[in-house]
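Q: Start with the shorter request: fold the first protein.
A: Done. Sequence, then structure:
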Amino acid sequence: MAILPILVAPHPVLKQKCEPVETVDDAIRTLLDNMLETMYDAPGIGLAAPQVGVSKRILVVDCAPRGADPQPMKLINPEIVTQSDALSTYEEGCLSFPEQYAEVQRPATVTVRYLDENGTQQTIEADGLLATCIQHEIDHLDGVVFVDHISSLKRGMIMRKLQKQTKLRSKEGRAAAAE
């Protein structure tokens, strides 16, 4: 397994709609395993393929509580088939928006149909943090990022902070390379 580089906003791949997976094969299974390893290393609770530069409808999540055994889920071509009218609000972050957080309101429960790593169709009903996480990652597959769900004022603030962080990291990288 390998840890993959995570793209940081405003990378253009993050705003692209992903293509469905036609065949679940060893290459897809390897990508899923690498995505899980990358997510755990980050650390995060969800990761979508476009975040690692792959424009395919693939995501991984693990919302197990800290200290509990991992509960990884690998979803290929996920689609929300039903969602509740009731909403819930969570403070969301994103590995492609390092150290940036905002409250986002989403349906409280969802039913999701997807293919597992063996190409078998599955359905899951999710609520709470898992429902939020899956919706967040499916958004990535449609070129939508969590800041698209907040006010333009808050989004602008987050993007400016992100640009400052990127410039600072770039300066630090050049300084380290010069040593």
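Q: Next, the second protein, separately.
A: Sequence, then structure:
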Amino acid sequence: MSATTRRTRRTAVLLAGAALVALTATACDSTGGPSVSTEAKQTAAAPASGDSAAAVKPADSLPAESKAAESKPAEAAKAPAKIGDTIALKGTLEKGNTADVTAVKVVDPAASTNEYLTAADGKHYVAVQFQIKATGSKAYSEAPWSSAKVIDDQGQAYGPTLADTKAGPSFQTPTNIAAGETGKGFVVFEVPNGTKLDKVQFSLDNGFADQVGQWKIG
């Protein structure tokens, strides 16, 4: 096969790949496009004993001051999710792929478990622990390390590394969680020394879902 023929075929493959990316982007846009979810999932609180009468009291019978006070919890629910909160996420590529994801904690800095595999000069490891509960009809079977990123206070994002740290066990690759069950593990990042991290992000479909969960650090 001549060099010209090889170049022609390679060009054709690259063009085909570009066309596929364009079609995928169009398909994603048709579902409403990417979105960042920053609202924590709310848990229903049971009324305390002796408060049942108050719990069922019609809202219209309450004074204006009480109505205003009742509206405050709804407003508070819109506050940005923070570390420790849970965000309900859904995938884009496959129906039934949903999960409740919790950014449990951030360990900064995190020491490597291998003295010969450490962060580059001028950098250090940061480990973020996530908890994933598969809430859909399908099992969660993805690589969590490819689904997460951290963002500093200047808006710079940092992707994950496959290093293991003393913060705790990393997720297996892939991680398989049966429907209705929960898994937990760390994702590790390498960031420059002096970096002030501001946010953590996570999405399903190995990071390719349109919906992205975001937690505020600190």
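Q: Describe the second briefly.
A: The first strand starts at residue 35 and ends at 37. The radius of gyration is 23 Å.
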